[in-house]
Amino acid sequence: MDFTGSAFVIGASGIGKACALAFARYGVRGIVIADLTLKAASAVAAECKSQAIHPDFLAEAVAVDITKEESVHQAIAYAHQVLGRIDYAVNSAGVGVQLANEIAEASVSEFEKMFKVNVTGTFIVTRALSALMKTQDPVPVDEAVPARGVSQGSIVNVGSASGFVATPGMVQYTAAKHAVIGITKNAALDNAKHGIRVNSVCPSWVDTPMIRKAMDDIPELGEMIQKAVPLGRIALAEEVADAVMFLSSSRASYATGCNMILDGGLTRYPRIPSSPSLTMAPPNNNPNGYYVESFPAPGLRQIVRHITGLNEQGKSVFLHSDHGDHHRFMVQNQAISNLLYSTQETPVDLNNNIDIQKAKEKEPPFHYKSGSIVRMIDFGPGVESPLHRAMTIDYGIIVEGVFELILDSGEKRIMRQGDVSVQRATAHKWVNVTGNGTLPGRVMWVLLDCKEVVDAKGEKVEGYLGSLQEHYEGR
Ligand SMILES: NC(=O)c1ccc[n+]([C@@H]2O[C@H](COP(=O)([O-])OP(=O)(O)OC[C@H]3O[C@@H](n4cnc5c(N)ncnc54)[C@H](O)[C@@H]3O)[C@@H](O)[C@H]2O)c1
What SUPFAM superfamilies does its record include (predicted)? Predict the structure, then answer.
């Protein structure tokens, strides 16, 4: 890469830091690093000095809060004063998701905070840099190829693959990153006649402190990334910096308004599970190649759960419609359970919708003492449950497909769509025989607690879950 000018980078961590170091290594004359934390910016400036190849390289740091116009103007004025001109600017300051929630429960204050930094901040920075670059003298892009024209500067924003696709529970980030793409496109258009190019890089998951924090909050995220990304791994911050270097360089003299996706193929083939709370298991020992990654299981219909209640006028209304709670993979990802509802006591306290809150917050055990569970399980082709006995009265309804219900006596029945079993604390197992074991199927159960059961000899009947136990451990 042939950098002859000076760089200004906002963001002294993760992607911003990788860009600053790359500029130094590729020969820029000087660099100013800006961040909310001056200490972090100074540390990166020092690291740049140790890696720079330009003989007269200079690196300085400045504090900036990109949400504040005055602060951005001061930081840019400082960089301009130190460097003489800003040829390559990168804005990598940003914040990640703090609270992941479905749209109906999404936090307004989190949305506003996200927009303040990631959208208004990007707008303020792009605006201020454009104003400065408009005043800079045009310089030839490439002395050897005059046809490449002249440049007054280049701006690269760090967007995200979330600027192109949505991620469940992350409306604030999706909307903010779509906006970054809009700002970049518009700024490119407005600035084209001034010789200023404006582009963005749009990565998916990148190994930076921002994503490390998310991994601490969601332990299964690392594994989920590996499975979701066709290239099978998270990106390095340096790989994003490589794209930023290209877009900043004379090699990209014809690129403006370009939002470069860097996602290991993810948005070409999105397979993001529907909730970060999903427990993922690798598709190992899978005898028939069928694999469930989200609800509904492949080949089965999406279902809608409607929850009603009373409004302020005492009228009955629909409060909420969604697809159920607490999706959990089972049988090495050949089945998935979906909790349609649970109550923790009888009679149920419906006041202040406390039951709705309880059902959403806590994934229930197999059954609740004195409570109720409505559970749906999507079975892959041929999937068989272990023999088990729940100390409940349990209504099993075949929703899709054909199942064999086998009791511990060896008695069995074939059940088709709409058929119901009334299990009275009996030991049994279910086998999905839909399409002779070639198609998925779905069963719904309503489980109610029962009193202690004694057999004909007067002995207490004990419940057991067999290998199902591991799915209900600790709940
Ligand atoms: N890490 C990823 O997986 C990933 C993926 C796609 C896009 N991105 C985007 O890349 C950008 C950089 O993220 P990162 O992963 O390097 O994160 P990071 O947390 O490592 O770095 C972000 C930097 O921005 C700074 N910052 C935050 N608010 C600021 C403000 N108001 N003013 C000035 N500086 C501020 C922070 O101090 C921090 O140094 C963000 O816009 C992020 O949305 C990250």
Answer: NAD(P)-binding Rossmann-fold domains, RmlC-like cupins
Q: Using CA atoms, how far apart are residues 116 and 122, in angstroms rounded to an integer?
A: 9
Q: Which of 26, 78, 88, 177 is catalytic?
A: 177
Pocket test for ligand 1, best of 32, 36, 37, 174 (most atoms within 8 A of CB): 36
225-280: pLDDT as tens digits: 888 898 999 999 999 999 999 999 999 999 999 999 999 999 886 554 444 333 33
CA dihedral 202, 205, 210, 214 (to 10 degrees): 140
For 419, other C-beta atoms within 10 Å of its C-beta total: 15
Residues across the chain: 475
- Closest C-alpha residue for ligand 1 atom 8: 160
C-alpha radius of gyration, the chain, whole number:
29
Contact 307, 320 (CB under 8 A): yes
Task: Find all residues with CB under 8 Å of 85, minimum gap 6, and list them.
Answer: 5, 6, 136, 137, 153
Q: Please tell me the distance from the alpha carbon of residue 184 to that of residue 197, in angstroms, as a whole number.
A: 10
Exposure string for 46-69, b = 16+ CB within 10 A, e = fewer? ebbeeebebeebbbbbbbbbbbee
pTM for this one?
0.64
User: Which strands make up the sheet holding 372-379, listed edge to edge?
Assistant: 325-330, 335-343, 372-379, 441-449, 392-400, 420-424
Residue 67, classed as helix, strand or coil, is: coil
